[in-house]
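thread: overnight batch results

M.L. [08:02]
morning all. the overnight job finished for the chain we discussed friday. pasting input first so we're all looking at the same thing
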Amino acid sequence: RSLDSLGVQDGASLQVVFHIRGGSEVLVGSSDCSARLWCMDTGELLRSFDEHQGGINSVAFDPEGEHAVTASLDCTSKLWSLATGRCRRTFEGHRAGVWTAAFSPDGARLVTASDDRAAKLWAVETGECLRTLRGHEQGLRSAVFRPDGVLVLTASADETAKIWDPASGECLRTLEGHHHLVWSAAFSPDGALLLTAAADDTARLWSAESGECLRTFAGHVGTVSSAAFSPDGAAVVTASW
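M.L. [08:03]
and the structure it wrote out:
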């Protein structure tokens, strides 16, 4: 379907995640400060989430498919009930726009990445900030949990990615090699490899154990804004503008 059919204004930036229940529902977060849940088969608008005061940079579903989280330039993230459309909780504490919010594999924790140079870990049930991860020299662009939930990976405008122990808040490793802002970082399904995407027009593959850069994927002629592993970890896909 076209963006017009999803109610998105021309020029609005998007983050899109498919709902896990049957794969027929899609959540669209936009720079117009709203997120909308749509039925892809019929084009029907199922829910609209409109309480943010700034553009939405990311959307994600919890592992059970019962809630969604949005990250916004208004310095907050919000937890939404997909059944009712109501905001269940607002995560406040960042001092600049929030670029990413991601659930832990068990859905009990949330990690957020902000332009205030910090990532924060939250208890989903209570909204309590469990820990703040500081060490990057510029704003963060993404943060994700390892598939087993034991480690966190962040990407920053300081041209690095960092691996963290969320229990202690310790930075275990810094990945250096990119020559521009790092937009995203991801773990492989088994957690052994890392993948980063950067504004230096490349993506890089790293060893999670040693921090060594194993391969550089060059060929794009613009910023590589996102990179992801295939479900079996045997291939990667990159996106560029």
